[in-house]
Amino acid sequence: MSDKAIQEHPFYERTLDSEQIFQGRVISLQVDTVSLPNGESATREIVRHPGAVAVLALVDNKMLVVEQFRKPLEKLQVEIPAGKLDQGEEPVAAAARELEEETGYRAKSLQHLSSFSTSPGFADEIIHLYFTNDVTKGDIHLDDDEFLTCEAITLDQAISYIDEGRICDSKTLLAVYAWRIYTLTGSF
């Protein structure tokens, strides 16, 4: 749908005012006042995010995952390798970079599977999900504030991790279910 068509849609919310409340290293927060379709106005709190990438990487029919502490959830979390886009960075380049930084594996090729919004009710973050089963082992290069372990798990282990709540983020759930389809059909 074109920008013009969106702005002409009866549910479109026109921005009347916008105030930036916070500017951080990763996100910013703004509060917008919008005009509703019924003529009333409302407030929308919006998190701005530069976008991210994630990689479903298979090595010997096992998925590479990392386990790390996630402060917002106050728990350890098992996830596929992922990270935010740097300014001006192409998603496929970021996916290759993040895979190597977090797992030590270099992708010889990456296939784009999907791009999806994480929380469209309050955030503009888009995650670009890639797949590879064509990797070579290299060296891990973690950021100074990044502490994680990497392992390769089977599909059955991944399903168990979901059941146990060790995997509960959308990008990893999507990757596991895509992997299941790939295992059953040979394609995505």
UniProtKB/TrEMBL annotation:
Instruction: Name the domain of life.
Output: Bacteria
What's one GO BP annotation on this UniProt entry? Answer: ribose phosphate metabolic process
Q: Cellular component per GO?
A: cytosol
Q: Which InterPro entries match?
A: NUDIX_hydrolase-like_dom_sf (IPR015797), NUDIX_hydrolase_CS (IPR020084), NUDIX_hydrolase_dom (IPR000086)
Listed cofactors:
Mg(2+)
- The residue range of the signal peptide is none
Write out the GO MF terms: hydrolase activity
Q: Indicate what this protein is called per its UniProt record.
A: NUDIX hydrolase
- Which organism encodes this protein? Candidatus Cohnella colombiensis
Which Pfam families does this one have? Answer: NUDIX (PF00293)
Q: Which UniProt keywords apply?
A: Hydrolase
The Nudix hydrolase domain extends over 47-175
